[in-house]
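hey so u asked for the seq, here:
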Amino acid sequence: MSGSAIATVMAVVAGLAGAVQVAVMAGLGDRIGSVGALAFATVLSAVLALAALLVAERSLDAFSRALSQPWWTLTGGVVGLFILLTVTVAGSRIGVVATVGILIAGQLVMGAVIDRFGLFGVDQVSLGWPRVLGVVLLAVGAGLTLAR
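ran it, structure tokens below
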């Protein structure tokens, strides 16, 4: 299986897992509070990521290498924390479908902006009408998921 095929399968599985994460985190947040659920999930993720790093690289050198990178490359964890808090709060208030739909629509809009202007060091990708239409249709669909 090629690298792009593996990446595609991983993206599909991560998409499926994302919906599960919304439901699970909303349930945990309802039981122990949103911030408590966020803290627990973040610490558990950190412990597992640290273990994976130690198994894969047998060192913690990646931490020192990370600190020498441009500041904006280090913001992913903060953004991830906000996303996790958002799904914890939103999942039980607006539902899993609406939360996932709105997140995906937001990701596509920002992805189109990032591609169009080549932000964060990615190659510029033009926005033809099919891409723009796809983003608009998804945004409309995400808005419709708010109707109960």
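The mean pLDDT is 93. DSSP finds six helices and no strands in the chain.
lmk if thats what u needed
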